[in-house]
Design brief:
The chain is mainly α and about 375 residues long. It has 17 helices and three strands. The protein has a three-stranded mixed beta sheet. One of its GO terms (biological process) is response to hormone.
Amino acid sequence: MGSSYDETPMVVAKDAPVPPPLPSAPLTTAVKTTLGRRSCCVSAAASESWDRLFDDAYRADVSIYTSGDDIIYAHSSILGLASPVFRGMFNRKRRSNKPFSVPIRGVPAEAVRVFIRFLYSSRYEEHQMEEHILSLLVLSHAYVVPRLKRECEDQFERKFLNAENVVDVFQLALLCDAPRLSIICHRIILKSFKAASSSEAWKAMKMSHPVLEKELLETVNDEANRQKDKEKKAKDRKIYLELYEAMEALVHICRDGCKTIGPHDKVFNEQQGPCNYESCKGLESLIRHFAACKLRVPGGCVHCKRMWQLLELHSRLCIDSNICKVPLCKSLKEKTRRQKKKDDMMWKTLVKKILRTKSITGAPYFSLAAAL
């Protein structure tokens, strides 16, 4: 007996709708946004409609009283959707059956108008933002409108921060819980402290918030000390690198020879190529002086004293004094074993700093183990 599926008539599929063809290309971003009912921007027509609704105040049920005794009319449903503060305010007044009237004072009337308009259409004029950005930051924080708050922070960061207003913005950023903006302001104050501290805003802060001024001065001093430490470390690093290069050049001269100086156990090669060690030039003249000076004892000659220090430093860095070609390496290494503990610690500290500055744990001639 055949399967029941084989006996099923195929005419049933005749009335079925024809399936749409498979998409030949992936959906564009615009189509995906539409299907997902998401939008990060508003069309110009929609924004104009919202602006017109605000400008015409059609069926407005809220009266907003500003500092200039101007009245701005708005819609409670729109304000409540845009701000949880407005929503809670209207819910309380709705229960008392009183008309909606909201006083927003302490900022210019035009700033309030720009703020309310933003709640409708998320738009503003550039010159209005530039003129009222401080007030808009305060209003966006007070009425919990994060979109506008982020926009104000971004505009400050990209355009409007300078040495004249940075102190005011810094105080406002602290009050309005804008940590990124406060950090940026703090950096600008540290960078342009002279201009910022001579501004009128700084004088006003000194009178109204002396504790904040004291904290800023402390951070300025800390930053100055950090810069000094950084410069000192860079200078020390340069010295340690120069000492390391001098040690390499000393081994190079005593083992291979360089330019006009060669090792005592080899014939000097006059056809050798250019030297890769920058320290060789000064070291050659120092070695020539050391070889010819009659006051070669340590302390007898400034140049010879420096040569003795280089030789002792080499002996402390050298891996194997038995095969080393540098003069006095082995005898100086033996001398270090009998040296006073205090002097020995000073040399060991210098050796460690030189090797760590070079960021090595071993090298053709020197080793960190020599400093232990």
